[in-house]
Design brief:
The chain has helices at 25-29, 47-54, 60-77, 99-109, 115-124, 130-138, 143-153, 160-165, 184-190, 192-209, 212-217; strands spanning 16-17, 20-21, 39-40, 43-44. It is mainly alpha-helical.
């Protein structure tokens, strides 16, 4: 408990319910801001004690359950060595923060690396940096292309291997060739049917690059 007692409850990615952080203004104004504020003698406060401090309203039981579940999930994620790389923030006047100010402070203090970074490094040996993240918004003004690029970069494009885990697809195999597992790199590049498209693109590119006009535009010497 000592490792967690000073951990901030709100807008904290470590304390999330169904993958989303929480911020309850009436809890904050009632001075419930840290994990330690929910415990007494190492026992989680019962629901009626919370209502005595925060007040009653129709959604209070849901809020209580969500916070209790989020903290319980955090305990389950702890390993034998305790919480790794956990930063503790100490705000003296947290109740005076506006939601936007509070969120910025939390984001700045709890910078985390998205799973996609380790995925592409492991898969392709590619280091994802700030410039690569911005390609999605800088490469095109077309919203659908930006969204496609964003999904690919984050490895959340709905290939069959993802859809199968969600119970939507019947198989993890590629829909087009039915031979290989439908990983994201297979779907967009290695599939034997998709690779034909890339071969045509490559041929067209090199054909264009070999023309006199293109070479002169690039300042390259042209030998007839």
């Amino acid at each position: 408990m000592t490792q967690l007692e000073n951990l901030c409850l709100w807008n904290n990615s470590l304390i999330a319910y169904r993958g989303k952080t929480m911020f309850l203004r009436d809890w904050v104004t009632s001075d419930i801001c840290y994990v330690k504020d929910l415990y007494e003698n190492n026992i989680f406060l019962p629901f009626h004690r919370i209502c005595e401090r925060v007040g009653h309203k129709p959604t209070r039981l849901f809020e209580y359950g969500a916070i209790r579940t989020a903290i319980a999930s955090l305990f389950l994620k702890m390993n034998d060595n305790g919480i790794q790389a956990m930063k503790v923030m100490d705000y003296q006047k947290i109740s005076t923060f506006k939601p936007r100010q509070f969120r910025k402070l939390m984001v700045d203090a709890y910078q985390t690396e998205t799973i996609a970074v380790s995925f592409w490094k492991r898969k392709m040996g590619i280091e994802i940096n700030k410039d690569i993240w911005q390609i999605a918004s800088n490469a095109s003004k077309e919203v659908r292309l930006r969204l496609l690029h964003w999904k690919i970069t984050h490895n959340i494009y709905p290939t069959n291997i993802i859809l199968y885990k969600m119970g939507i697809a019947e198989s993890i195999s590629c829909t087009h060739c039915t031979e290989e597992t439908d990983y994201i790199e297979h779907f967009f590049y290695y599939c034997r049917k998709i690779s034909k498209v890339w071969n045509l693109v490559e041929e067209a590119f090199f054909t264009a690059c070999s023309t006199k006009k293109f070479m002169l535009m690039c300042g390259m010497p042209y030998l007839a």
